[in-house]
Amino acid sequence: MARAPTFLTARWCDLALLDFAVDPAAIAGLVPSGTELDAHLGLPGERLRRDGSSGRPRVSAHPGYRRMIREHLSSVCLLHAMDATRLEGEDIMPHVQRITPCLWFDRQAEEAVAFYTTVFKDSRIVEVSRYGEAGREVHGQRPGTVMTVAFELAGQAFTALNGGPAFTFNEAVSFQVNCETQEEVDDYWTRLSEGGDERAQQCGWLKDRYGVSWQIVPRALIEMIKDPDPAKSGRVMEAMLRMKKIDIATLERAYAGQPS
Asked: CB under 8 Å, gap of 24 or more: what pairs does 45-48 form?
């Protein structure tokens, strides 16, 4: 697969997206000389080059230039979440998630995924594959039944597999849900714990109705536990160990040395 040209910088993206009145030559001044624009602008022969008199880089004029900038660069900037730390000349390549958790269910994969995608924002079912006749003597599944479901939760890719009853979930693997507020903690805890085993609820951990373990973790807990003062972090740890669902206010009182 051909690599994307190395031409974008965060500063150039900002100008292209926010200030279409700027002279293209001014935008070009932020881009290294000799950079190729063709692949992303779709303009044959468009290349960045230096003006012979001033030595400043510029982009050659072309009808529809700003429209092309808006349509092409805006999508590139947004897709790649460019920020001020991106260096000039860095390759612009799509992010590839190399590790995808695979959840082995008996026969509930499709049902579980439908549930999970209602709990988390930015979630979707990507693809469903089904068993055929091939390998039936091994997998034992009826042709046409769901084999795998590819899905995303909060932008994170997962796979759910209907593999039969050979394996079940346990607490050795869990998924952490980072929360900013008590409201978020309460919401995720209520929705994910419904129908799950209440005996498994401890220190922010829970099991959902399918046996999958989750940790509902407020960021405030992590910050207080990391405090270099052992007295403060120790009080927070002791308070947390007495909880099922994490209560931020109680942790803050323990952190401050106040009675609970």
From this structure: 48/7
Cβ atoms of 45 and 75 closer than 8 Å: no
Q: CA-to-CA distance for 181 and 187, rounded, in angstroms?
A: 10
Last residue of a domain, one of 79, 113, 138: 79
Instruction: Give the CA dihedral 39, 40, 43, 45, nearest 10 degrees.
Output: -40
Task: Give the tens place of pLDDT for each residue, 53-99.
Answer: 334 333 334 444 444 444 444 443 333 333 333 434 444 445 678 99
- How does pLDDT run across 232-248, given as a tens digit for each residue? 999 999 999 999 999 99
Q: What is the CATH number of the domain that holds 157?
A: 3.30.720.100
Q: How far, in Å, are 93, 109, 159, 161 from residue 126 at the CA level?
A: 22, 13, 10, 14
Exposed (0-12), middle (13-18) or buried (19+): which is 201, by Cβ within 10 Å?
A: middle
By the 8 A CB rule, do 243 and 250 touch?
yes
Nearest Cα to Cα of residue 74 among 14, 32, 24: 14
Residue type, 78: L
pTM: 0.65
Euclidean distance between CA atoms 113 and 161, whole angstroms: 10
Residue 120 amino acid letter: F
> Residues near 74 by Cβ (< 8 Å), separated by ≥ 6?
16, 17
Based on its alpha-carbon atoms, the radius of gyration of the chain, rounded to whole angstroms, reads 26
CATH code (residue 225): 3.10.180.10
Beta carbons of 49 and 60 less than 8 angstroms apart? yes
Q: Are 88 and 31 in contact (CB under 8 A)?
A: yes
- HSE, CB side, 13 Å, CA atoms: give it for residue 197: 13
